[in-house]
Amino acid sequence: MSLDFSWLSDSLYQRWLLTGIGTTLLMSLLGILLMMVFGIIGAIFLHFRTPVLGTITTILVELFRNTPPLVQLFFLYFMLSSLGLSLTDPATGRSIPLFSGFTCAVLSLGLYNGALAVEIIRSGLIAVPAQTVEGARSLGYTRFQTFRHVELPIGLRLSMPAMTNNVVSLIKTSSQAALVAVADIMYGATQIMVETFRNLEVMLLIWLLYVVIASLAVWILRRITILFRIPGYGVDRP
Amino acid sequence: MNSEFRTFALGIIGVPLCLIGLLAMIYGDRTGATLAFIADRTPMLLTGSPDFSSLQGGFIANIGMSLAAMAIAGALGIILGIGLIAEFWPTRLLSGFVMNVLRNSPWLVVLYAMLYLLPFEMKIFGVWITISPVVKSIAGLSLPVAANIAEIFRGGIEAIPTGQWESARSLGYRRLQILRYIVLPQALPLMIPNLMTIYAMLFIGTSLVVVTGASDVLFVGRTIIETAGSSTASAIYIYILFLFFLFAFPIAILTRWLERRIGTVSP
To answer: Which Pfam families does the UniProt entry name for this protein (chain A) (predicted)?
Structure first.
C-alpha cells in the first residue's frame, strides 16, 4: 500500500481544509461558551437546591448525558428547521434560516457537553473546603455573595482538570456536524474524498488535524489552569 | 443507595414525560396518531424486521456491536496498558503515543479511517472472508475505547501502593507474576466503575456507525423517515433518544452507586 499526498498541493483543496479548520474552531469556541453558560446555570440550580428548577435540571442533565449527541443533533436540526424561522441579513438583504446546521450544531454541542459540565462544576463546588465557606459566612457575606465571590471562583478552578477532558470531548464531538452539512474539517474531507478517491490519505490527515487541535486545546487549558491557580487550593502542579 | 435512587426515580419518570411533552408540543392534536405510528414501527426499530421474526439490525444490533467492541477493546486495552507501565522505556513511550493519539481523535474519524483501511474482503488461511460494515464498525469503535481502557488500567495499577510491588519482589515474584497475582486482583474492583462509564460512552457512540452503512437503529430510523415522510422525523428521533436513554441510564446510575460504595471518583 502506498500513500499519495499529492492532492495536498491543490489550492482548492487547501482552501477547503483551511475553511474547515476555521469553521471547526469557531463552532468549538461558541460551543464551549454555551457549554459554560449552561453548566454554570445548571450547577447553580442544583447547588442551591432550587425546588422546581433543580428537579428540571436533573431530568434534563440525565436526558442529555445518556443519549447519543448525534441523535440529539439530528432531532434539533429537523425540529428547529421545520419551524421555518429566518432572519434577514442586514448587509445583503437575503433571508437566512435562523436555525441553520451551524446553529443547531453549536446548540447541540452546548447542550450535550453542558449537561456534562453541570456535573463537573457541581463536584467542583462540593470540593470547596467547608472552612473557606464558613469563613466567608462569618465575615458577613450573604449566601449569594459567598457563592459569587468564594465558592464559584474556587469551584471553577478545582473543576479545571475534568473540564479539560470535557472540552476535548466537545472538539471531538464537533466532527458530527458534518453529517448535517456544516462545512467543517470533516465535511471538507468528505468533499475531497469524493473528488480524489484518496480516502485513506485524507482520513489520516484529518485524524492528525483533530489530534493537533485537541492537544493544542489541552495545552491552552493547562496554561489557563496554572495562570489562575490559587496556591493552597487543588493540585500544586496540574 | 438513597441519592442514586432518587435520581433514578426522577430520571426514569421525568425523562419520558419530558419527551412525551415535547412530542405533544410538536404534533399538537396529531399526537395520538403519531404514537400509534411509533408503536407500529417498534419491531422495525428494535430488530430491523417488521414483526420481530428475524434479527437484521436496529437497536439490538447497537447493543450487540457495543458488547463485541467492548470485548475487543478490553483485550487490546490491557495489552496497551501493560505497555504503558513497562520497565523498558521505548515500549512505554510508544504505548503512550498510541494511547494519546487514539484518545484525542474523534470516533467518527476513526470509524471513517477503518472503513477505508480495512479491505472489502480478506484472505485468511486460504479462505476469502468478506468484511462487513458491522465488522468495520466494531473495529473502528474498539480502537478509541481500547486507549481509554489502557488509561484506566494504568491508573488502577498506579493506585495500588508501591509497597505491594516491593514486598512481592522480595518474595521472589517476577514482574508479570506480581501483576497477575498481587496487583490486578486489588486493582480490578477499583477499575469497574470507570470501565462501566466507558461502556456507557461506547454504547452511546454506537449511533455513529450509521456512517459505515451498518443497519443500526439510526439507519433503520432514517429509512422509515424516508418512506413515511419527513413529518415523522421528530417522532422517530424522540423515540430513538428514548431507547438509548432506557438502556444507558440504569448503567449510569449503577456506576454512580458503585463509585460511592468503592469510594473512587471517576476522572
So the answer is: BPD_transp_1 (PF00528)
Question: Cβ–Cβ of B208/A176 closer than 8 Å?
Answer: yes
Q: How far is CA A79 from CA A235, B26, B41, B122, in A?
A: 44, 8, 20, 43
Contact of B248 with chain A, judged by CB distance below 8 Å, is answered with: yes
ipTM of the complex in this document: 0.85
The 10 Å Cβ neighbour count of residue A154 is 20
Q: How many domains does chain A have?
A: 1
Q: Which of A75, A162, A214 has its CB closest to that of B234?
A: A75
Classify B107 as helix, strand or coil.
Answer: helix
pLDDT in tens, B185-200: 888 888 888 899 999 9
**How far is Cα B205 from Cα B77, in angstroms, rounded to an integer?**
18
A173 touches chain B (CB under 8 A): yes
3-class secondary-structure state, position B124: strand
Q: Which of B104, B200, B267 sits opposite A162 (nearest CB)?
A: B267
Query: CA-CA distances (angstroms) from residue A135 to A68, A125, A130?
Result: 43, 16, 8
Q: Which domain holds residue A102?
A: 6-83+97-227
Residue contact A68–B106, C-beta within 8 A = no
CB–CB contact B11 A59 (8 Å): yes
User: Start-end ranges of CATH 1.10.3720.10 in chain B?
Assistant: 59-214
Q: Are strands B121-124 and A95-97 parallel, antiparallel or unpaired?
A: unpaired
Which residues in chain B are contacts of A68 at CB distance < 8 A? 204-208, 241, 244
DSSP 8-state assignment for residue A97: E
Q: Which superfamily does B59-214 belong to? A: MetI-like (1.10.3720.10)
For residue range B133-155, list pLDDT tens digits in order.
Answer: 888 889 999 999 999 999 999 88
Using CB atoms, pick whichever of A58, A175, A215 lies closest to residue B106: A175
Is residue A167 included in any domain, yes or no?
yes
Which tens digits make up the pLDDT trace of A170-216? 999 999 888 888 888 888 888 888 888 888 888 888 888 998 999 89
